[in-house]
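Usage

Read records sequentially. Each one opens with the input sequence:
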Amino acid sequence: VRPHGATLDEFNDFVKSRGVGLNKKAVKDSPERVEELAEDFYWANSDPANSPNLDIEEGDEFHFVMDCLDDSRTKAKSSLSLALLRVLKVLSRKQANRMALDETDIRTIISYMHKPRTADIASEVSSVILNVCYEKGNVHRVIEEKGVPFLLDFVCGAEEDVAANAAGALQSISYQEEGREELRELGTLELLIPLLTHTSVKVRSRCVGVIHNMSSDVHSIAILREGEAIKPLVDMLSAPQVAICGSAAGAIQNLSREQASKALIIEYNGVPPLSDLLFGSDVQSQVCAAGALINLIGPGLECDPGTGVQLPEHLEQRRGFSKLIMLSLVTGMAFHGLFSEDDD
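and closes with the structure output:
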């Protein structure tokens, strides 16, 4: 016997019993019961770490949820909209469900981003987009359905939770090359750079995550430099939050490949905090810091002007410096392994 909330059976059975075709009679005749069942499923699964639905790998029969969402009566009732979007947020945690979404489903989801009736609806629909865009195909669909501009509006708004979830959705989109191109063309970096100093840790963390992903795109590096992103990124290297300093280090590593950005990173005193990260406890931060330091203070990659071939002496020097940095990295890891906080 499956635990309560493991499936949508109770919700689906009720909707099926109330109508045929597009199954919209349930919304018309019994919206309160639809909302009650949706909320019941959501609260049974609100914590991903203790979600009975997430424990079941196979996909769910969720087209009844989508039918209810694709109803003007649902959109007119904020509490019902919110309850159904929360159900979809839970369902979209599972890859099987994300993979089953089609263009019509994405279009229905994005329709809730257009002039959302409440901040909670804007926040929840952003969370749904965050989840569904773990799949490359859904990133393409969200772009095709013009969903990204809504996220950009949300991330610049006054509501902290909405901004954080919208930034999270942008971060999911930015993992894909098509997503990074779309974000760059829509001016996303210019909007996010001021948010690196946002009062919310969650907003800062997700915005610097987007910038880290986009900094891997060579066309974004100049935008970040000219938009004065380097100084706040250097400041973030000393943040107490691992996710923030790790993403900042990754962005700095990518930016340090460009000479103009490299000079600014050094000017803003970026080398000392990068060196500190080598002896930290987070592996991602250590690796990114090591790569950035190799780019910043390691021997150059000068080439013979006639042949374009890298000069042997510089190649050897760079290899030697890289070994020194890696030795420091390993020493830092070993130190934390021997003298961790768990020791008596």
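Summary fields computed downstream for this record:
- The CA atoms of residues 1 and 7 lie 11 Å apart.
- The mean pLDDT is 89.
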